[in-house]
Amino acid sequence: MDANGGNLVIVSAAYTSQTCHECGHVASGSRDSQAVFHCVKCGYRTNADTNAAMNILGRALAKTGGGTALDVEDPHWRPDEASTPSTQAGSSFGVRAVKGIPRL
Questions:
Q1: How far, in Å, CA of 79 to CA of 77, rounded?
Q2: What's the predicted TM-score (pTM) here?
Q3: Cα 51 to Cα 38: distance, rounded to the nearest angstrom
Q4: In terms of Cα–Cα distance, which of 72, 61, 75 is closest to 99?
Q5: Beta bridge partners of residue 31, listed in sequence order
Q6: 59/66 Cα distance (integer angstroms)
């Protein structure tokens, strides 16, 4: 982390897979499957791992005063990719920086 100028922020992952990144509603019924998150309150639908990661990012940003995860756009990936993001070079998965929030 020191070499890249980053900071390690420890946050609780509790309920991040059941919390809607879009509206904040918490419900175990929002998990359509292991791979799909579909909010029972607002209808927001996305990859379940992406939703949980955005919630974890939001907690880290709130803890450091760096904004909120609602300020960060959802990552996008090609539909033909696996249900979990690829770690290979060239993967289109990632979080894009939004004005005022540095790229992670």
A1: 6
A2: 0.63
A3: 10
A4: 72
A5: 37
A6: 10
